[in-house]
């Protein structure tokens, strides 16, 4: 796999590269093969959204984050953090201490996404009376049949 410098050299010589192909594509989350779909899943899934929201408050160690995101299992939090780190949204910093210390924090891109998510979270929380009334109305209508 070539790196960006090699791709730049090939591009300067007029050759097309895989990086050119990706750069020329418009990302479309509705397209099955679009890589943005996976990232959207990581960000909007239950544990991804809650983890990003929690990390917006600052840096956390794993168990602190697990307590903050109430209900997440150790396995799910670990998988979520790996996915978010791979997508460039979370930074994992392991410090060579005894015992080892690992801190997680948002990257600048993660901060930007978390702020948008928190806007949605606050909106949903603020409209829960309406949601609960709609649920009750729906359940009554379904039960009346």
Mean pLDDT: 87
* Number of beta-strand segments: 3
Contiguous low-pLDDT stretches (5 residues minimum) are 1-11
Radius of gyration: 21 Å
The helix/strand series, from N terminus to C terminus, equals: HHHHEHHEEHH
Q: What is the helix tally?
A: 8
Q: Percent of residues in helical segments?
A: 55-70%
Q: Kindly report how far apart the N and C termini lie.
A: 61 Å
Question: What does this entry look like structurally?
Answer:
The chain is mainly alpha-helical and 145 residues long. It is built from 8 helices and 3 strands; from the N terminus they run ααααβααββαα. A 3-stranded antiparallel β-sheet has the order 1-3-2. A hairpin with a 5-residue loop joins β2 and β3 (101-106). α3 (36-44) packs across α4 and α4 crosses α7. The longest helix has 19 residues, at 108-126. The protein is globular. The termini are far apart. This is Winged helix-turn-helix transcriptional regulator. Residues 34-132 form the HTH hxlR-type domain.
Secondary-structure map with pairings?
Elements: H1 4-12, H2 18-24, H3 36-44, H4 46-55, E1 60-61, H5 62-68, H6 74-86, E2 90-95, E3 101-106, H7 108-126, H8 128-143
Antiparallel strand pairs: 1-3, 2-3
Helix pairs in contact: 3-4, 4-7
Organism: Streptomyces sp. R21
Pfam families: HxlR
Keywords: DNA-binding, Transcription, Transcription regulation
Descriptors:
single chain, 145 residues, mainly alpha, 10% strand, disordered N terminus, transcription regulation, WH-like_DNA-bd_sf
What's this model, at a glance?
The protein has 145 residues and is mainly alpha-helical. It contains eight helices and three strands, in the order H-H-H-H-E-H-H-E-E-H-H.
